[in-house]
Amino acid sequence: MTSQEVRAQFLDFFKGKKHKIVPSAPIVMKDDPTLMFTNAGMNQFKEFFLGNSISKSKRISDTQKCLRVSGKHNDLEEVGKDTYHHTMFEMLGNWSFGDYFKKEAIQWAWELLTDVYKIDKDSLYVSVFEGSDDADSLKMDKEAFDLWKAIVPEDRIIMGNKKDNFWEMGDQGPCGPCSEIHVDIRSKEEKAKVTGASLVNQDHPQVVEIWNLVFMQYNRKANGQLENLPEKHVDTGMGFERLCMVLQGVKSNYDTDVFTPLIREIETITGRKYGKDEETDIAIRVVSDHIRAVAFSIADGQLPSNTGAGYVIRRILRRGIRYGFTFLGTNKPFIYRLVKVLGETMGKAFPELREQYQLIENVVKEEENSFLSTLEQGLVLLDSVIKSSKNKTIDGQKAFELYDTFGFPIDLTSLILEEKGYKLDVEGFEKALKAQKDRSRAASEVSKEDWVVLLEDAEQEFIGYDTLEANVKLVKYRKV
Ligand code: ATP
Ligand code: MG
Ligand code: MG
Ligand code: MG
User: Fold this and answer.
1) Where is coiled-coil annotated (predicted)?
2) Domain 3-253: top CATH class
3) Cα–Cα distance between 403 and 400 in angstroms, integer?
4) Is the pTM of this model over 0.95?
5) 180 C-alpha to center of ligand 4: Å?
6) Residues 418-444 pLDDT 10s
């Protein structure tokens, strides 16, 4: 089954259950001060869950573009190292706004997975919230437990703690217990050795969570207390790439047709082969993952920049560029060449990729060019700093220099150091960063009279560029 078919079947199934199919919201959040990027399917429906507005349709289903690289859900460190966490991924979902609740949500999820997709029932495990004895003192979700017990043998129902089985959107907002569905795709021999139940939520690459059914019944207030929501709702999220992995009978998301065209293209460009050694594989996975995050964000209007969400995108791309440079031997822009392939595989479901194709390609190429122009020098500097370091910790001032002069985002420097078994003096870095900010504030106060940093003024004489951060050039003019 192709990934296109997997997606279509999901939406068709819920259409058949009287859900309205809606498009994905943008991956970049524009009007929610608590979130930079959409990190779950429910984000766009938050106001319905809070009761602040009412949905015209009580049942909705879609596939949502998500990004988990900042804030509460940050999977960046896992990406590439494991085979089932991405920065950008699609979350398939179905929602009930004050309509059906646990019974239908559970029964339909089971029906879709086992009757429609024909996943082997014996490979599935489900989890139920066990309750908590903290300040919230919540009871076990007996209702969900009983509903599952009617469908699956009891030894396939796992009790889960608050971390895994109580879903919260953020520090505030709608929340509630959840039931997750996990799938065990290990070989028969492996299964015979160790029971899958003991591997659920243990970061096993072949015993993975695919679907989370959240039963929203509370709202967490600013003071931390829970209150009952005026109406109960269902919010489900299924990882599309993981589902494709299961249905396509492969052992990694990267072996599904969502990723293989990108990986083949990286192989063609770099001459490296995927599946030969771990270091190369991680780099190929990282690049094939990161281009998706970057391309979808640009398509939704978020260009790489030096602040806020734009800097998150720049950091992701620079991370990818450096993986290519160090592990795939690329010293010329190449990631931009994946945009075309991405458009071909995903453009039907997400037309914005095709519509914005040229812009995305240009922006990525320009970013690659500018970072590559300082990357090598920066790496040489970092190497010499490492060699001269005595206590396995790198001076924050040096990390600042890498950031300021060579455009190394601080998490990239940390990542490289970590690979080599070194640590970073984060405090020292922050001190240097603050000192620079203070300096430039003071400088800009003084320089107002002499320098203007803007174009389109005939009364100015061009006097040159000033490189600030790797590729950020301030065009300087003298007033005449
Ligand atoms: P995990 O425990 O694997 O990190 P999660 O519990 O954080 O997943 P949820 O917030 O429950 O994930 O999201 C719903 C579904 O989205 C998950 O069941 C999973 O299939 C998928 N998912 C979550 N995070 C990612 C990711 N980083 N990449 C791909 N799919 C993901
Ligand atoms: Mg997670
Ligand atoms: Mg989980
Ligand atoms: Mg989950």
Assistant:
1) none
2) alpha beta
3) 5
4) no
5) 6
6) 999 999 999 999 999 999 888 877 766
